[in-house]
Amino acid sequence: MKKISLLLVVAGLAAAPAAAAPKQKMLTYEEAMKQNQKSFQLVVEGLPLVLPSWALPFYFGMQKNKAQQGAKKKKR
Questions:
Q1: CB 59 within 8 A of CB 51
Q2: What is the pLDDT of residue 33?
Q3: What residues contact residue 35 under an 8 Å CB cut-off, 6+ apart?
Q4: CA nearest neighbour of 59 among 69, 75, 71, 47
Q5: Domain membership of residue 50 as a residue range
Q6: CA nearest neighbour of 44 among 60, 32, 30
Q7: What is the C-alpha separation between 43 and 51, in angstroms, rounded?
Q8: pTM given for the model
Q9: Number of domains observed in the structure of the chain
Q10: What is the 3 state secondary structure string of the chain?
Q11: What is the C-alpha to C-alpha distance for residues 33 and 27, in angstroms, rounded to an integer?
Q12: What is the pLDDT of residues 27-72, one digit of tens each?
């Protein structure tokens, strides 16, 4: 009987922080997509850190092309 009561007390102590934590609000679809886009952008910007050295010129060449296309669209 003592073992069971001790297990219940330990389980209650372990569950206390989870019960006291405030509930998170639900995100709308648009907010969730913005958050996902920010996370994905961090991955894309950090890509040169993990690419092998021979792949870096290709990566930066693609980024340069995207920047040039963006500049052309702004001029028009």
A1: yes
A2: 93
A3: 27
A4: 47
A5: 2-75
A6: 60
A7: 12
A8: 0.44
A9: 1
A10: CHHHHHHHHHHHHHHHHHHHCCCCCCCCHHHHHHHHHHHHHHHHHHHHHHCCHHHHHHHHHHHHHHHHHHHHHHHC
A11: 10
A12: 899 999 999 999 999 888 888 888 888 988 888 888 887 777 777 7
C-alpha atoms less than 13 angstroms from C-alpha of 24 in its C-beta half-sphere: 4
Amino acid residing at 11: A
Residue given tokens 């792949």 in the structure block? 55
Q: How many residues does the chain have?
A: 76
Which residue type, as a one-letter code, is found at position 73?
A: K
Tokens of 67: 């920047």
Tell whether the model's pLDDT for residue 75 goes beyond 70: no
* C-alpha pair distances (Å), 19 with each of 10, 23, 39: 14, 9, 29
Q: Tokens representing 10?
A: 């330990």
